[in-house]
């Protein structure tokens, strides 16, 4: 049996691929082991460099930094989802007066790197006379503008991928186009595109780390501060390792929540289909 793009590998090809996979794993493990060994040789694992994390004050401030990261993520995630839905509906509007501005807004902010958006907000707007722009506002707005534009395309693609009969059936029962999109199409699009949406939320969570460049006191900013403490041997590597563990943990928690939500939505759909089948 063959695919449209390639032939299904035979026994020799599968054996060769297995050897390549094993070799790749060995190389990656070797690189990681070499890096850890170099850290060990340079004294990055000595007790002095890790002592700073035993202080209650440092632990409290580190938790505060994690909280600041989560607050920025929460605001940016909600704002990005709302903006994405609004822009997606704008892209699907019948009126060109709505559709074209939504298109250009999406393309513009999807093309600008998040860091540049943050720096424009934090450094550019105050120089133009706009006051009250804090690092938190710059981080959140920058994340919303970029990720909202990306999610707009995700929602639009999800809605357009649905069968046209869904839209026609909604219009046939007297719903307006907006009601059809909001009540019928959007929930199905969210369910079908949920893995992509969750991936983008993970991107938002990790991109909060860019806030340290504009002095937002999140996890990476505080880790950089800890690494500059010379009296404790400048524990740069330990601070960054702890930060990496924090981000990995947060991303795993977010992925777990996403899987739980997806399973709940799938079970609800199965229940509805079962009831419809019994009624029929």
List keywords for this structure.
single chain; 280 residues; mainly alpha; MetI-like fold; globular
Summed up:
Helix content is 78%, strand content 0%. The protein is mainly alpha-helical.
If you had to describe this structure to a student in words, what would you say it looks like?
The protein has 280 residues and is an all-alpha fold. It has a domain at 70-215: MetI-like (MetI-like fold, Orthogonal Bundle). Helix content is 78%, strand content 0%. The protein contains eleven helices and no strands. It has helices at 11-41, 47-50, 56-91, 96-111, 114-127, 135-160, 164-172, 177-192, 194-207, 219-227, 236-279. The longest helix has 44 residues, at 236-279. The model has no long low-confidence stretch (mean pLDDT 85).
Provide the fold topology.
Blueprint: H1 11-41, H2 47-50, H3 56-91, H4 96-111, H5 114-127, H6 135-160, H7 164-172, H8 177-192, H9 194-207, H10 219-227, H11 236-279
Helix pairs in contact: 3-4, 3-6, 3-10, 4-6, 5-6, 6-8, 6-9, 7-8, 9-11, 10-11
Strand content: under 5%
- How far apart are the first and last residues' alpha carbons, in Å? 40 Å
Radius of gyration equals: 24 Å
Helix and strand run:
HHHHHHHHHHH
With helices defined by DSSP (H or I, 4 residues minimum), what is the helix count? 11
CATH fold naming of the domain at 70-215? MetI-like fold
Structural class: mainly alpha
**What's the mean pLDDT score?**
85
CATH class of the domain at 70-215: Mainly Alpha
CATH architecture of the domain at 70-215: Orthogonal Bundle
Which blocks of ≥5 consecutive residues have pLDDT under 50? none
Report the helical percentage. over 70%
CATH homolog superfamily of the domain at 70-215:
MetI-like
Overall number of strands: 0
Largest sheet report: none
């Amino acid at each position: 049996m063959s695919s449209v793009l390639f032939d299904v590998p035979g026994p020799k090809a599968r054996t060769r691929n297995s050897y390549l996979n094993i070799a790749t794993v060995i190389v990656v493990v070797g690189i990681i082991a070499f890096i850890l060994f170099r850290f060990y040789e340079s004294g990055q694992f000595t007790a002095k460099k890790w002592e700073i994390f035993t202080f209650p004050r440092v632990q409290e401030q580190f938790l505060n930094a994690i909280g600041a990261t989560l607050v920025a993520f929460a605001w940016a995630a909600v704002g990005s989802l709302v903006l994405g839905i609004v822009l997606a509906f704008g892209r699907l509007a019948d009126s060109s007066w709505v559709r074209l501005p939504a298109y250009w807004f999406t393309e513009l902010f999807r093309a600008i790197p998040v860091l540049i958006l943050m720096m424009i907000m934090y450094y550019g707007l105050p120089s133009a006379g706009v006051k009250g722009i804090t690092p938190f506002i710059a981080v959140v707005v920058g994340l919303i503008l970029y990720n909202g534009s990306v999610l707009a395309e995700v929602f639009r693609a999800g809605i357009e991928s649905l069968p046209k009969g869904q839209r026609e059936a909604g219009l046939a029962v007297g719903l307006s186009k907006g009601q059809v999109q909001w009540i019928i199409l959007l929930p199905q699009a969210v369910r079908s595109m949920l893995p992509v949406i969750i991936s983008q939320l993970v991107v938002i969570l990790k991109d909060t780390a860019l806030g340290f460049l504009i002095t937002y006191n999140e996890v990476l900013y505080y880790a950089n501060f800890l690494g500059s403490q010379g009296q404790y041997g400048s524990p740069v590597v330990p601070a960054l390792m702890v930060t990496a563990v924090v981000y990995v943990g947060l991303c795993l928690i977010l992925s777990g929540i996403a899987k739980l939500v997806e399973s709940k939505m799938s079970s609800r759909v199965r229940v509805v289909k079962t009831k419809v089948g019994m009624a029929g």
